[in-house]
Amino acid sequence: GESEELTGLLPVLKRQGVTLIAMTGKPTSALARHADIVLDSAVAQEACPLNLAPTASTTTQMALGDALAVVLLDARGFKAEDFARSHPGGSLGRKLLTHLRDVMRSGDAVPRVAPEAGFGEVMSEMSRKGLGATAVVDAAGALLGVFTDGDLRRKIEAGTDLRSLNARALMTPQPRTIRDDVLAAEAVALMETHRINTLLVTDATGLLVGAVSTNDLMRAKVI
Predict the structure, then answer these.
(1) pLDDT tens-digit profile of 8-43?
(2) Domain boundary among 97, 127, 148
(3) Distance CA 201, CA 106 (A)
(4) Are residues 139 and 68 in the same domain?
(5) What pTM was computed for the model?
């Protein structure tokens, strides 16, 4: 708090009526004397064996700075969403700003079959769309069920005659879904909770509008 670069500014700041808060390890310094508020960061001794290089003192100032920042965050009501808006490209920003509709598959990229579709058509749709599952929808697009590669393995192990079944008989009715107007991070949480790799996405009326996989979310860097 005694450097010429700093002490030369102090009279100017005082004349302009600038409130000065100083963080210094020397409460008797010129900086401290001119300050309206002094945060004393004095240490008994530096960690440097010569007691010369700023070591313990810099750690103390960093801790004081962090404490001050946290207090101000609370006083201003600063939320995670505010942080995300300031850092949209970071991990937190992506999690809090990326909506599911921005990363989900939609249109023809979503595997779907009619309930009357045969086993061959179901397998063809799953293979062509590469999602490891297909939705079963009615003529209006309402979701009826889902058939996944996990369902396929279980039916094979049970000795089921798959070729004799249509999509309605193969599917799991009332599958787990997610709305298209939520954050992508909510899809991640739901998948992790239920240990699934694919989610079908519906709108407010229950119509199928998309699908998303863990790979899709990883590509979007939400995971």
Answers:
(1) 899 899 889 999 999 999 999 999 999 999 999 999
(2) 97
(3) 9
(4) no
(5) 0.63
